[in-house]
UniProtKB/TrEMBL annotation:
This is D-3-phosphoglycerate dehydrogenase. PROSITE patterns: D_2_HYDROXYACID_DH_1 (PS00065). The keyword Nucleotide-binding does not apply. Belongs to the D-isomer specific 2-hydroxyacid dehydrogenase family. Residues 109-293 form the D-isomer specific 2-hydroxyacid dehydrogenase NAD-binding domain. Residues 5-315 form the D-isomer specific 2-hydroxyacid dehydrogenase catalytic domain. GO terms for molecular function: NAD binding; oxidoreductase activity, acting on the CH-OH group of donors, NAD or NADP as acceptor. SUPFAM superfamilies: Formate/glycerate dehydrogenase catalytic domain-like (SSF52283), NAD(P)-binding Rossmann-fold domains (SSF51735). The keyword Lipid metabolism does not apply. Keywords: NAD, Oxidoreductase.
Length: 316
């Protein structure tokens, strides 16, 4: 059995697959050459992350394929229903990267409420000549403790984010059309844990109550946060998106940052990946990362191992 990890896979995943007798290839094949490569090399398992698209052309024309695996949560780059109708197994790793994404959300939050993203731009340029000016400019920071975090989508990643918020001392309110109530266990270093029950409320209530927002929703046709939703938020609120590009109207977002309705945003994903809008990239009120939510060594190890376990279970 041959596995092509076209967007890469952790060494732990490779080791587990090879130990089970699979041949693992980590060649990155261009999108338009994938069909020929899979057929020429008789690939049985295609593993991707977010870069490679698995559409009907691959599904229809690669008879050796048995499994399509997504290292991560969202599978909008795979025609999942069609593949399964054609008899292929489609797998992903929904739990493996939750903690890593949640920590990135708080990296953006902490950095933004203390202006770190902007200070790190300006200190190398003006720190030696305008130190006092910069000190004054960044002196009005905000604490997260005691503030309200609105979680839009409280699945696995939303829950992991809520755990951190609770540990920080924040109030958490959540909206999720599929979940009415959820238990959030918060574990501590010494084995102790506390359980917190969160009852979801309407989206409008979350928009009205929250000081900061974090989105954890799949890709969808309509904006989850557009101009009308921003207008319902508190003045000076902050917004983080480490979910999917296209769930926030970036034009409305930039406008709200420029007119002061929102104080900051943190974006790990963008409408036009991999070519984000220049107005977004150049806005000094936006903390920016290049879609790295799951890009920690620990998460990638878990993703690789989880994919390997599923593949071995299906094919052996």
């Amino acid at each position: 059995m041959k596995v092509l990890a076209n967007d890469g896979v952790s060494q732990s995943g490779i080791d587990a697959l090879e130990k089970a007798g699979f041949e693992v290839q980590t060649t990155t094949v261009a999108q338009d050459q994938l069909v020929n490569y899979i057929n020429d090399n008789e690939i049985n398992v295609l593993l991707v992350r977010s870069a490679t698209k698995v559409r009907t052309d691959i599904i229809d024309n690669c008879s050796s394929l048995k499994i399509i695996g997504r290292g991560g949560v969202g599978m909008d780059n795979i025609d999942v229903t069609y593949a399964r109708e054609k008899g292929l197994h489609v797998i992903n790793t929904p739990a493996a990267s939750s903690g890593s994404v949640a920590e990135l959300v708080f990296a953006h939050l902490y950095g933004s409420v203390r202006f770190l993203h902007d200070a790190n731009r300006n200190m190398p340029l003006e720190g030696d000549s305008k130190f006092k000016n910069l000190k004054k400019a960044y002196a009005g920071g905000t604490e997260l403790r005691g503030k309200t975090l609105g979680v839009i989508g409280i699945g696995r990643i939303g829950q992991a984010t809520a755990k951190i918020a609770i540990g920080v001392g924040m109030n958490v309110v959540a909206f999720d059309p599929f979940i009415e109530e959820i238990d959030i266990p918060v574990e501590f270093f010494d084995g102790q844990s506390l359980n917190f029950k969160i009852k979801t409320v309407s989206k409008e209530e979350v928009l009205k109550q929250s000081d900061f927002f974090t989105l954890h929703v799949p890709a969808q046709k309509e904006y989850v946060i557009g101009k009308s939703e921003i207008e319902q938020m508190k003045d000076g609120a902050g917004l983080i998106n480490a979910a999917r590009g296209g769930v926030i109207d970036e034009v409305a977002l930039v406008e709200a940052l420029e007119n002061g309705k929102l104080s900051f945003a943190g974006l790990d994903v963008f409408e036009n990946e991999p070519n984000p809008a220049i107005k977004v990239l150049m806005n000094n009120k936006i903390s920016l990362t290049p879609h790295i939510g799951a890009a920690t060594g620990e998460a990638q190890d878990r993703i690789g191992q989880e994919l390997a376990d599923q593949i071995i279970s299906i094919l052996q």
